[in-house]
Design a protein that fits this description.
The protein has 192 residues and is mainly β. The protein has one helix and eleven strands. The strands form three sheets. Strands 3-4-5-6-9-10 form a six-stranded antiparallel beta sheet, with no helix packed on it. The radius of gyration is 28 Å and the shape is elongated.
């Protein structure tokens, strides 16, 4: 709370809020397990969710942002002999970012020189509108290291499958059509 000395034009308490807030949940877990002195398993999982931050540059308050991440990874390391070691790794990852328009109740306006002014009908995560960016990846890789004296040979292979999906849609709740710019100015939409 900030207080200024009373005067005819300036008095009373003023409260100030933080300009940015986040609603974030994060989880991270790691497991290490040794089957024997020759084999070791390491696994990790991560999940995160961020929703509706209050950006200080936005006049709309809470932003219609939703961001989710989920991933799992595992690695198995085996020592077959002092000169031969192998590793097998696998992982999957899913990432989703979504933005809706800040004013979700806007109607769509059409008919002005074949242009449309966008409107939107939804909140994040309910109806598929606004901007969506989803990525799914899966990877598997393996390698073998063979050493003999001063020489080291490493052989390996892997496969990465990535599936991005980005789209922007605006499903209108209501659509107003106008024959001309003059009809738009005087608020006279076409009625069917």
């Amino acid at each position: 709370i900030v207080w200024a000395p009373p005067s005819p034009n300036n008095f009373g308490p003023v409260s100030l809020a933080a300009p940015v807030t986040l609603r974030r949940e994060t989880a991270l877990e790691r497991i290490d397990y040794a089957f024997s002195s020759r084999q070791h398993l390491s696994a990790r999982g991560v999940g995160e969710r961020l929703t509706r931050p209050d950006f200080n540059w936005s006049p709309y308050g809470q932003s219609p942002l939703s961001q989710k991440t989920l991933g799992f990874a595992a690695a198995l390391t085996s020592s077959w002999s002092p000169s031969i070691v192998s590793e097998l790794r696998a992982g999957i990852h899913a990432d989703s970012v979504a933005w809706d328009l800040a004013l979700s109740g806007l109607p769509q306006i059409a008919g002005l020189r074949n242009d449309s002014l966008p409107g939107n009908c939804c909140t994040v995560g309910r109806i598929e509108g606004g901007w969506r960016d989803r990525t799914r990846t899966a990877e598997i890789a393996g390698n073998v290291v063979i050493s003999s004296g001063p020489h080291v040979l490493k052989l390996g292979a892997g496969n990465l499958d990535s599936r991005p999906n980005t789209r922007f849609t605006i499903p209108p709740v209501i659509s107003f059509s106008f024959f001309s710019l003059q009809d738009f100015v005087i608020n006279n939409p076409f009625a069917s």
